[in-house]
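Fold this sequence, please.
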Amino acid sequence: MPQTLTRDVPSAAEAHALGEEYVTALGKIINSHVRNEAAGAAVFDEPSISLAPTPREKWLACRMAMEEYGHHLKFNKLANELGLEDAHSRPPLSVFDYQVTSWTDYVMTKAIVDLAEIVLMEDLCECSYVPLRELCRSLMPEERFHVRFGATSARRLAADPATREEVRSSAHRLITMTVPFFGRSDSRNNEIFRAWGIKRLTNDESRAEFIRRTRALLCDDLGLDYPEVETRWHGTTS
């Protein structure tokens, strides 16, 4: 493992020239996005179309499903350029086991789970591998739109006594389920990512930023309480 890679890696050929460890580390990041972008579109966005209460909201749900599948295809292109193994040989993250059963549920996945994706993608916007860095930068406007839609809709739903408690319960469940999204506190993978300049932040630093932003949404914007979670996580995900 190098001290810390400080130069740009502009192509798949140069990534392979750096050696197997760099390509393997990149592969773990890219294939995770290949899996999870498709999973989010399939289990969150597609079901929401039938749950949406108005034609405009159905249109928005369709748009976000289309964009998430588009992200999947773009990450998959990077995977193919690097010659990575099949991304679907591993399951998506456990947060995608969440069952969306109402429009409020869906709104909160956008406000919370997509916010976790932004935190991770912001870090990759400084990645040493230029194709991954440029892709993440190009996708940020769509990701921010998804989170903005979720937060704006959540404010409206939380202001309605009929849906306020549903907003709260969905938010608590999703925040608790998303904490492992960032990986173990003692992750060897994360050490390698940072040594190769693929990531800058530790898993705990990313998790703390997610907690800070979701706390601001729930407590400051929506006037709700926040679930008890910790910035450290010692589960099995690396």
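The chain has a mean pLDDT of 94. Residues 20-51 form the longest helix (32 residues).
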